[in-house]
Amino acid sequence: MIRAEHIFKSFEGRMILDDISSTFDTGKTNLIIGQSGSGKTVLLKSLVGLHEVDSGEVFFDDVCFNRLPFMEKKAIRQHVGMIFQGGALLDSSTVFQNVRLPLDLFTRMSKAEKNKRVAFCLDRVNIVGSNDLFPSELSGGMIKRVAIARAIVMNPEYLFCDEPNSGLDPKTSVVIDNLIREITEEYNITTVINTHDMNSVMEIGEKIVFIHQGKKWWEGTRYNVLDSNNKELNDFVFASSTAKQAKARITEQGQSLR
Amino acid sequence: MKFFEFSGNYLLLLRKVFSRPEKFRIYRKRIMAEMDHLGYTSVGIVALISIFMGAVVTLQMALNFESPFIPKYLIGYATRETVFLEFSSTVVALILAGKVGSNIASEIGTMRITDQIDALEVMGINSASYLILPKIVSSVVFFPFLAILSMFVGVLGGYAMTWLTEIFPLEDYVTGLRTELKLFNIAYALIKTSVFAFLITSIAGFYGYYAKGNSLEVGKASTNAVVASCVAILVFDLILTKLMLV
Hints:
Order of helices and strands of chain A: EEEHEEHEHHHEHEHEEHH
CATH class of the domain at 2-79 and 156-253 in chain A: Alpha Beta
Shape of chain A: globular
Number of strands of chain A: 10
Distance between the termini of chain B: 32 Å
Strand order of the largest sheet of chain A: 6-7-8-3-9-10
Number of domains of chain B: 1
CATH superfamily of the domain at 2-79 and 156-253 in chain A: P-loop containing nucleotide triphosphate hydrolases
CATH topology of the domain at 2-79 and 156-253 in chain A: Rossmann fold
Oligomer: heterodimer
Structural class of chain A: alpha/beta
Shape of chain B: elongated
Number of helices of chain B: 9
Largest sheet of chain B: none
């Protein structure tokens, strides 16, 4: 479980995160949603420690992560996986080398064991026969899947995803969403996903935190995101045809999403 | 004020770069790869520049030593001293600052703006050390070999020019090359080259590592890295010459 308590963050005097508190549960896909520029990415990077917060605390289970000394932080980071918006694979390394890098640096596995683990992770994300390709030779969807493989290769306890669907077609987006959800459940990971894709919200949003103008505006699940009477949330959610259609279906059939 | 801010951040980065590596074996592999990437690929340009440099220096010396009171072998001697003491280390370092420095700054800068450095940090890897240390070590070790190559090719350029133009007797050039050769001067040039290699790679690494924004900023970081490296080379050239020769 990850717990954020009263997070404040500003850049050059401009407040980006204004008193954000929330809990992200283990074994669930926790979504941070909001418009572009609302502070989602800053929040995600603050949770993972890539941004130092001005004040507030981030707990990884019961450990106050952002107050830890460098070396202890580094030790915890070996249990963290992250998928970046553009994949962030190392350009100078092949697919296989990218996924193997954490194993090379942090484990005492034999070469055969490492190769087996990498092959398993690549197979898990359906990347076959691309071991020797460089990131520039991969499609957007493949880059994301290799990034997922790299993120899970160390058996992480915490997984962070920064807009995993950005730049992908709807079909590939669903594949990536399902993959993240399956991995979260399979390995009982605490997953935090930053997105503004309503398809993802409706598909995998087990817990949703809505950020608006740097503040936590709303918190709930995909089951009640369509029923909220929060104006800003509704403006955001119903700008998407997916949400409109889902709402229309529910109203028509008198059903609930549940 | 900006200079102090720059220096402070540069020293803080160096502290991070020289902290204990995660696994020496991986770093050793990376050092070998960087030797190939930064050093071996510079052999051609260093040789090309040096041969012309040696030829031009010889011509200049020959033209300026046109006096019956100056023995002709001094042309060879002056060419060798100029090439060994200054050209093979300082001029070659300035050229490498352009080639290697811009390469490092743009490579690391691109990694910064495409989140690759953040990805390394999230994995628990000391990104500064992982990316910059192998480049520094490989350059400090390999660049002196480039300086030796430059010395050899430089005097060869002078030899070729003397032979082609017959501006003065070839035997005098060879006699000049063999006159009063001081090994300390070669050591001085190699030490200077290692210091310059450190400056080029660490300054370029610094500019790349702290690049922000988009591709335009990476280009700017690359330019700044080359300019700052060149200035640092000239300043340290003066300091080292004063300390070691005067």
